[in-house]
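Dear support,

We are seeing what looks like truncated structure output for some complexes. This example has two components. We would appreciate it if you could run it in full and send us the complete token output so we can diff it against ours.
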Amino acid sequence: GAGVSQTPSNKVTEKGKYVELRCDPISGHTALYWYRQSLGQGPEFLIYFQGTGAADDSGLPNDRFFAVRPEGSVSTLKIQRTERGDSAVYLCASSRTRGNEQFFGPGTRLTVL
Amino acid sequence: AQSVTQLGSHVSVSEGALVLLRCNYSSSVPPYLFWYVQYPNQGLQLLLKYTSAATLVKGINGFEAEFKKSETSFHLTKPSAHMSDAAEYFCAVSARGGGSNYKLTFGKGTLLTVNP
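Here is the complete output from our reference environment:
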């Protein structure tokens, strides 16, 4: 079956611009996680959704970052006023419910010039 | 709070040799422990996980790991390396229990190179 998909695969933007990154989880998975992987580092947790609600957003670095999951399926990570330090690979993962195996998408590579 | 330390950012072995990738964890609550593999330009793939059953966990592609509570370790091993094992490996920890959201805390990763 289809895995987790993320679009776009690559995004290049200029400092100060707004970007949206999309995640399509595996159908029926209620738990969805966003992680950020900077160069040479392991992924770092950003936010966790159970259904439509953000149950834990403690990993978001500041208020320029926001994520939604309005219908409990697709999620969008939104970054305002991008900075060069936001350059990273943004990973999405879904699981059937919390506590089950997380399946990762291929990531979106964001480059802020 | 949880953290993971992977000793050795780069490990190089010969084809057919033993693979040993080290992982130590810190957790204030009983942990779940994971090893993930990441091939170039691909997503993370779960190799194996420890969830409080057997302490010796067998995973895919001939890998296994042993949970040692006294040493707070979860090292990954494979008896004989293949060229196809060349990739980056991440150890991760999450809290378990009713209040956990099971978010993963990852180590910095170990790049495994396999030489012919």
